[in-house]
Amino acid sequence: MGEDERLAAVVALAQGMAAAHSSREAWRAAAAGACRALGGNFAALSVWERELGRLRVLVNVGERSAGEVEFPDDEAYPVHQFPEIAEFLHERWAQGGEPNAWVETAEGPAAGGSAGYVHQRVAALRRRGRGCCVVAPIVLNGRAWGELYVARPAGAPVFERGDADFATVLAAVVAAGIAQAERLEEVRRLAYTDALTGLANRRAVDGRLDEAVERHRRDGVVVSLVVCDLNGLKRVNDTRGHAVGDRLLERFGSVLSLCGAMLPGALAARLGGDEFCLLAVGPSADAVVKAADELCRRAAELELGEGVACGVASTDDPIGPVHSARRLFRLADAAQYQAKARRATRPVVAGREGPDDAVVRMADEPVGEMATPERRRFRGRP
Fold first, then answer.
1. Of 206, 215, 203, whose CA–CA distance to 323 is shortest?
2. DSSP string spanning 217-261?
3. Pairing of β 42-49 and β 54-62
4. Which of 319, 333, 341 shows the shortest CA–CA distance to 366?
5. What is the pLDDT of residues 70-84, one digit of tens each?
6. Helical packing angle, 3-18 and 23-37, nearest 10°
7. Is the pTM of this model over 0.70?
8. What is the mean pLDDT of the chain?
9. What is the C-alpha radius of gyration for the chain, rounded to an integer number of angstroms?
10. Model confidence at 98, in pLDDT bands (50, 70, 90)?
11. Residue 257: which of 268, 270, 265 has the closest Cα?
12. With contact defined as beta carbons under 8 Å apart, do 163 and 112 qualify?
């Protein structure tokens, strides 16, 4: 491969990673781009999990052998089997060397190899019908992050020293792409996370609820929403300060998360102010009401605050057709308002008899007139 071709391969690799919308896509683009650039038939990207002392494979691309999957759940190897990752980087590179790539063949170390090591990779090459590989350490933020591995089949030309040098360049491009992908993941995470409690925020609920209701309309999946107001927050803020009020919100957020764990896949969220919710897709209405009941019980036991007002609406109950996320939210919110007005210590459930033997209304008219300005601000949907 000439210099112009290699430059084009580097640009293609960088562009592929830049276009990725998730870390997984970035990993795949990195491995696939490096595989093409080096003329391999297989490539893998692995991360060094220091706390577990292992290299965990993130992605395998190209001609995979038996047992290799694109995104493995549990393909990992003890680092002591590949000491060059830890020892090379921490002993040689730390002393002023460079994190250069090396080549290994089914016969043992080759150009750029590290003599003196008994490589498990040699046996793996033979077992999987590969003739050689080039391994490039990936360094991110000044630390060993993992490795890029590209292989060729048995009988193909063996990687040379120039290939190892080129792999070192590719690994640097991959490191930059991974850093960008991780930053974007963090930005996305923060965009959908409540900073104080660590729960999901309103934006995350809106997106998930829209998807859930669409699944309900298409497949009949049960969708349930628990909306609750934490009682007494204003009193705590006024008498003990906002720092104590924040602590109450955090503690209730932990209780909500704990009760949400009773419902597989449920999303626990803070909608804003003192308003929280649980969104469950799949579990029965009875299971959701049970979790909401436990939430009320645990909230009443918090040292601060005055319990919680909790309303539930589920497509599993007789609430009429639910064609939009807005309708389900209105019903859950109306039930929550009734719980607050009655000072109910247990959930009020739309479509079921409440504490006062009254059924939460099913009307389609807006419920804004029943809510405070603050509640309308957090509930409003176009």
1. 215
2. HHH---EEEEEEEETTHHHHHHHH-HHHHHHHHHHHHHHHHHHHT
3. antiparallel
4. 333
5. 999 989 887 666 655
6. 170
7. no
8. 84
9. 28
10. low
11. 268
12. no
